Amino acid sequence: MNRYQKIIIAIVVAMAVVISGTIVFAAFSCSKTDQSQESTQTKEFVTTIETKTLVEVVLYTNDENVNLREKASKDTKSLEVLPKFTKLVSDGTKGDWTHVKYENKVGYVKTEFLMSEADYKKAEEESKKAAKKAKRHQVKLKSTNGSGRVICIDPGHQTHGNSSLEPIGPGASQKKAKVTGGTSGVVSGLTEYQLNLQVSLKLKKALQSQGYKVVMTRETNNVNISNSERAAVANNAGADAFIRIHANGGGSGQSGILTMCPTANNPYCSEIYSKSRKLADCILDEMISATGANRVGVSEVDNMSGINWSKVPVTIVEMGFMTNAVEDRKMATDSYQNKLVTGIVNGLADYFN
User: Fold this and answer.
1) Is residue 142 situated within a structural domain?
2) CATH number of the domain to which 108 belongs
3) Domain end (from 80, 112, 136)
4) In a shared domain, residues 107 and 167
5) Are strands 241-248 and 314-321 parallel, antiparallel or unpaired?
6) Would you tell me the crossing angle of helices 334-352 and 273-291 to the nearest 10 degrees?
7) Rounded to whole angstroms, how far apart are CA atoms 248 and 257?
8) 10: domain range?
9) Contact 203/146 with Cβ under 8 angstroms?
10) Of the candidates 136, 162, 196, which is a domain's last residue?
């Protein structure tokens, strides 16, 4: 029996209890024919109140970032984004949606993202066990002295893309859009530019705790900064490493982490190839170690504007595929984002050592 069937059965059972209770009450009322009409109306009112209470079923969200929608459609307004294990009260279903109450809000949640109270207790226990196991095998931040070193972090993309063209590198005749909006999560609903900034801000904090000076190309989503302008921020800061944070899109079966760097014969920045390749390798190795994700590899490219305009060691980090449901769910969580950050910080420690 799947989760959806369990939820439907729980609600039906509750309704059956109500119906049977109502029938008993009706039979009782009929046998008391000597009672006044006023007394009968009072009991009917009480029965109505009890019916409403008995129909309500306690449910819990089974995933992170679950949307509470205004109506039974994913195209309607999200009233709240609920974390995993949020307690809700339901009084019925509508198609693939369940009508729920959360605090002072009433709306709909996709039934596949809900579980019964019994399943919640099992999941909570399993979650505690998994957390203990993860703690025993947790990859820790490597101790390093970042003092005197400058790291430039570029959270890829932005709220609105800019389709105006710019050369893909110094003196290039080929042009590309200045910047795009990126991809989005198939399950989480997060846009890539939101995810990139979430991870980048965590990375900034972690690097600063190691003594690095951190320069950000952006710290909000509503900006308009082209890829060449982002590289210029790193160049002007004299960054020891330029880390460009991105997430991938592709087929639903694709998964894993990859990094990018210029080719050895890149016509715009071949002089930074050796250091950039080392940077890409070190970060990829440590990210795989920290997350256990699939290793896609290092891709050497000539067509990425943000790389081609760089004068300092640079790598693009593709943290995972937002088009893969499992990986998308992971990347939306704080715990997995922290693992990604740990991998990048440890990769930088290896690079500088």
Assistant:
1) no
2) 2.30.30.40
3) 136
4) no
5) parallel
6) 140
7) 9
8) 3-136
9) no
10) 136
- Cβ contact 265:337 at 8 Å: no
Q: Is residue 41 pLDDT above 60, yes or no?
A: no
Residue 66 falls within a domain, yes or no? yes
3-class SS at 158?
A: coil
Looking at residue 205, its amino acid is: K
Rounded to a whole number of angstroms, the distance between the first and last alpha carbons of the chain is 54
- With both helix axes pointing from N to C terminus, report the angle between 3-31 and 37-55 in degrees, rounded to the nearest 10: 170
Residues 23 and 99 in one domain: yes
Evaluate if pTM is beyond 0.70.
Answer: no
Q: What tokens appear for 281 in the block?
A: 């390798």
The yes-or-no verdict on residue 205 having pLDDT over 50 is: yes
296: three-class secondary structure by DSSP: strand
Residues 115 and 166 in one domain: no
What's the rounded mean pLDDT across residues 85-103? 94
Taking the C-alpha atoms of residue 239 and residue 36, their distance in angstroms, rounded to an integer, is 88
Reduced 3-state DSSP string for 63-102: CCCEEEECCCCCCCCEEEEECCCCEEEEEEEECCEEEEEE
